[in-house]
Amino acid sequence: MELNRRDVNTLSRFMQDRDRLSKKFNDSLRNWLVEHYGDLFRLDGQRCRFTADQKRRLKEELHKDYPRFNWLQGLTSGMERLAMASLLNQEKLADIRPDDQYVLVRQVAGDFSRAGVKAGLPPQISLRLPVDMLLKANPDTLVVVENLDVFDQWQQANVGAEILDSLVLYRGHNSMTRGVKSLLQQVPPQTRVVLFCDLDPKGLEMGFTTPGNPQLLLPVTLDEALALRSNGGIFKKQARARAFLQRQSAGAWKPWIDWVVKEHRAVMQQHLLEMQVPLEAVTC
User: Which residues lie in coiled coils (predicted)?
Assistant: First the structure.
C-alpha cells in the first residue's frame, strides 16, 4: 500500500509536533504504520501510542526509507510531478497534474495566430498548449467543444464564420477539463466563450456550470427531424442533470431546455454535425 497526499501530510504534522506522542490516524494510514513500523508504537484501539524514544526512532526510520523527503516540512502545494519525483518515488502525489495547465486547441484553417503561434499548420492539426500562452495571446472568442470527435470535425459545424474560424478548445472529460476550467476562470470578462455540447440535460447543465458565462451553441430550429435523432436511453440516465435544470432560471435558453426536459430528448453533437443543423450562439 502507498500513502496518499492526505496521509503524508497527516503523518508529517504528527512528526512536526514534538510533544505529541499519540494520535488516532485513519484506517489506511494506521494500517500502513502497522505494516512498516509496527514495532515502534503500541496500538490502543484506533490510536497509535509512542514513547518519546519510539517517536525519535520513527523519525530516523522515515528518513532512512525516504531520504529525499523532509517529514518535518510535508508536501507543499503548487508542485508538478517532476518536482515531486525529486522528493518521493510517488510522483503522482503532486497536486498539479499534467492536464491542469494545458488545453487542446485547433483552428479550421490551421492558422493558430489567435493562440500566439505564428507558424501555419495543416488544417487537421490540433495543438496542446499551455494555459499561460493562451492568456497572453488573449483571443477574443473561445469555442469549447464537449466531445473529441466533434472537436476533430469542427469544420463541419453549420455556424457563422465568426464562430467557425475562432479558436476551438476540447473540453475533455475527467482530468482534461481542469486545464479548460483554469483558462476560463482567468480570461478577461470581455472574452466571448461559446460552449458546444450535446443537446441533452447534461450538455445544457454545462452551460450553467462552465466558467466564463458562456453562450450555448444551439440548433436554430427544433423540428421533428431533430427529434428523430434523440436517444431515450441517454435521457433516462440523466435524472440528476434534469433536476438541476428545473432549479435554474433558464432565461433565453428556456425553449431548448423545455424541448429537452419536457419532451425527453437527448441529441448528441455528432448528429448536429452530420445533419448540418444550423447553429446559433445564445446567451442565457
Answer: none
Give the domains, in start order, of the chain with CATH numbers.
5-93 (no CATH), 102-282 (3.40.1360)
The 3-state secondary structure of 119-178, one letter per residue: CECCCCCCEEEEHHHHHHHCCCEEEEECCHHHHHCHHHCCCCHHHHCCEEEECCCHHHHH
Distinct helix (H) and strand (E) counts, the chain:
14, 10
Neighbours of 181 (CB within 10 A): 19
Tens of pLDDT, residue by residue over 40-65, are 999 999 899 999 999 999 999 999 99
Q: Residue 38: how many CB atoms within 10 A of its CB?
A: 13
Beta-bridge partner residues of 195? 144, 216
CA distance from start to end of the chain: 49
For the CA atoms of 260, 276, 211, 236, the dihedral, rounded to the nearest 10 degrees, stands at 30
* Grid coordinates given for 228: 428523430
Q: Please state whether beta strands 141-145 and 192-196 pair in parallel, antiparallel, or not at all (unpaired).
A: parallel
**Residue 92 CB contacts under 8 Å (≥ 6 apart), including other chains:** 81, 84
Q: State how beta strands 141-145 and 167-170 pair.
A: parallel
Question: Distance (Å, rounded) from C-alpha 70 to C-alpha 162?
Answer: 54
Query: What is the model's pTM?
Result: 0.79
Report residue 105 as a C-alpha cell. 486547441
